[in-house]
Specification:
heterodimer, A: about 110 residues, mainly beta, 6-stranded mixed β-sheet, about 0% helix, B: about 110 residues, 7-stranded mixed β-sheet, 4-stranded antiparallel β-sheet, about 50% strand, globular
Chain lengths: ~110, ~110
């Protein structure tokens, strides 16, 4: 079945430094949708960005990610971390058979310190 | 106002007891989902539904039942609650099962089984 791997369980950064959260995936489908969801403390997950197009950069709220099918990767990046970026980040893969089901990675907790 | 609402938000249940978690959405979405969140395991799909009066098994359905009596309502039922079912449960909805559609999550229901 589908799987999503987020190698870092916890990332701690100083404010102003760049952010990179890793995400790789496995799927039998050639046209997956990839997503990043963000969950702030005591809140529910919400969509941060998503992509379907190979090698195209997708941006939202200062974050960006590029889907690379050749390496099955969809890493999340930001040039300068802010304190408000502290949250739990999930990478997810969509089942393209129109069930709408998402397979989530285990998540990465990002903590940004002053 | 919240478009996906869950009740109860928090519950303590006794081992072997029955628990029902309810979800109501006003998004007019076709698809609804129940996910379970555990630290280190991300979000895992329990049951989902395409349409009223029909439910499908997700990735971890054992020990859970689901009911979709109307388009707006989707319940998760634990007939015999066990300690291992202590977790946070999220309901979500999406417009259709199209691959790129966004999931909208409820606030979560924290269940503690003692």
């Amino acid at each position: 079945g589908d799987s999503v791997t987020q190698t870092e369980g916890l990332v701690t950064l100083t404010e102003g430094l760049p952010v990179m959260l890793n995400c790789t995936y496995q799927t039998i489908y050639s046209n997956p949708f990839l997503f990043w969801y963000v969950q702030h403390l005591n809140e529910s997950p919400r969509l941060l960005l998503k992509s379907f197009t190979d090698n195209k950069r997708t941006e939202h709220q200062g974050f960006h990610a590029t889907l690379h099918k050749s390496s099955s990767s969809f890493h999340l990046q930001k040039s300068s971390a802010q304190l408000s970026d502290s949250a739990l980040y999930y990478c997810a893969l969509s089942d393209p058979t129109n069930t709408g089901k998402l397979t989530f990675g285990d998540g990465t907790v990002l903590t940004v310190k002053p | 106002e919240a478009a996906v609402t869950q009740s109860p938000r928090s519950k303590v249940a006794v081992t072997g007891g029955k628990v029902t978690l309810s979800c109501h959405q006003t998004n007019n979405h076709d698809y609804m989902y129940w996910y379970r969140q555990d630290t280190g395991h991300g979000l895992r799909l329990i049951h989902y539904s395409y349409v009223a009066d029909s439910t499908e098994k997700g990735d971890i359905p054992d020990g859970y039942k689901a009911s979709r009596p109307s388009q707006e309502n989707f319940s998760l039922i634990l007939e015999l609650a066990s300690l291992s079912q202590t977790a946070v449960y999220f309901c979500a909805s999406s417009y259709r099962g199209d691959s790129g559609n966004t999931l909208y999550f409820g606030e979560g229901s924290r269940l503690i089984v003692v």
